[in-house]
Amino acid sequence: MQKKFSTAFGAALLATTTVLALPAAAQQKLVPEQSEIAFVSRQMGVPVEGRFRKFDAQVAFDPARPAASKVAFTVDMGSVSLSPEANAELPKPVWFDVPKFPQATFQSSAVKALGGGKFEVAGKLAIKGVQQDVVVPMALAQNGASTVATGQFTIKRLAFKVGENEWADTSMVADDVQVRLRLTLAGVPKL
Fold first, then answer.
1. Domain with 54 in it
2. What tens digit of pLDDT does each residue of 133-165 get?
3. Rounded to 5 degrees, what angle do the CA atoms 124, 130, 134 make?
4. What's the total number of domains in the chain?
5. pLDDT tens-digit map of 105-138
6. Distance between CA atoms of 49 and 23, rounded to whole angstroms?
7. 15, 99, 156, 180: most buried, per Cβ within 10 A?
8. Are 32 and 67 in contact (CB under 8 A)?
């Protein structure tokens, strides 16, 4: 039961992670093997961490003109990795309903520079057919030819219908799911 609950919570987190992709201008390339989308949920008060193994981002980011930047993100909801039991449960209709909704998506609507390599990326996150506005704080750091964008944000799993019926009880699985992003990008202009 606990693993089933963790799997659903993990799926919600993955969907949220979709938001962490960065702004647009000149097209950058995601380096998947150096990137990660993780999530943390709480089952009966205990933190449980999972990841999504398959995701993609289309990023056009210009540090000189962040408002012109665009980010689109897709996450393969069937690629959740939490535990063998949770991995089998999360694709089911009560959690992610992967046969009907195979991907979570994020599309930016605004990118705002905050100074010191920090940005806010606002947009629409869609999970399980439900779309919500989200704002993802991101920090960028350059190391040679790579730029690493990190951020985290929290989503409410029940707003996305993740964990329905008996799993809607937040004493078992918390409503809040923290999504953590670490995206390595190639081709970002000097910050």
1. 2-186
2. 999 999 999 988 899 999 999 999 999 999 999
3. 30
4. 1
5. 999 999 999 999 999 999 999 999 999 999 999 9
6. 27
7. 15
8. no
